[in-house]
Amino acid sequence: MTANFEPMEFEMETDRLSLSMWRESDASWYRELVAERGQDMPTPDVARNKVISLRNKALENGIAPLTIRRRDEGDYIGYCGLIIGRSTLEEPEIAYELFRRVHGNGYATEAASAVLDGAIATGRRRLWSTVGSWNVASFRVLEKIGFKRDHSTWDEHGEIVWNVRDL
Questions:
Q1: Where are the beta strands (DSSP E) in 33-157?
Q2: pLDDT tens, position by position, 75-108
Q3: Where are the beta strands (DSSP E) in the chain?
Q4: What is the model's pLDDT at position 3?
Q5: Among candidates 130, 103, 131, 113, which has minimal Cα distance to 13?
Q6: How far apart are CA 129 and CA 104, in angstroms?
Q7: Which DSSP letter does residue 25 get?
Q8: Measuring CA to CA, how many Å separate 68 from each of 43, 52, 58, 93, 152?
Q9: 153 near 119, Cβ under 8 Å?
Q10: Which residues are registered as beta bridge partners of 17?
């Protein structure tokens, strides 16, 4: 972990959501989330290893994507948190992914707002988010929490728009 930053909180609450560190039992719903992207569903072992890796990286780096659970319903609906991604530990990316069945309810914005506050508490000065140019819903979430489009890069999947927010 970089000495300049405090570790982020790995447990957060909002009015409707609980965000927390990954548990091995999260591998089952994580498999479904990956499959919903149009990718092959990971095997139980691959998903469990991914979850364990996320926990280990969190303890090492002091940042993590956190699971999102609806407090009233008790169901897991996705994840949101800080990752290195295409950026750096000093200026990480905010990332989120939710099941389609819960899109349009403001959950991504609510979770991302909590993570944004968590990022500020670590002492960081800037966050990034990289989004495929087709992902209009993600751009709306980012705009609501104060991100601005900065520049684009391209990969084998097309245009990637880099969004930035000074903290």
A1: 65-70, 76-83, 93-98, 126-132, 148-155
A2: 999 999 999 999 999 999 999 999 999 999 999 9
A3: 11-13, 17-20, 65-70, 76-83, 93-98, 126-132, 148-155, 158-166
A4: 57
A5: 113
A6: 20
A7: G
A8: 22, 17, 16, 17, 29
A9: no
A10: 70
User: d(Cα 25, Cα 77) in Å, to the nearest integer?
Assistant: 14
CB neighbours of residue 66 within 10 Å: 29
Estimate to the nearest angstrom the gap between the alpha carbon of 69 and the chain centroid.
Answer: 13
Closest to 37 measured CA to CA, from 132, 144, 153, 139: 132
Residue 84 burial (CB count, 10 A): 15
Asked if residue 135 lies in contact with residue 87, where contact means CB atoms within 8 angstroms, the answer is: no
For residues 10 and 101, give the distance between their C-alpha atoms in angstroms, rounded to a whole number: 25
DSSP 8-class letter at 74? -
CA atoms within 13 A on the CB side of 121: 14
CA dihedral 88, 112, 19, 127 (to 10 degrees): 20
Is residue 110 within 8 A of residue 17, CB to CB? The reply is yes
pTM as predicted: 0.95
**Backbone dihedral region of 34: left (phi > 0), alpha (psi from -120 to 50 degrees) or beta?**
alpha
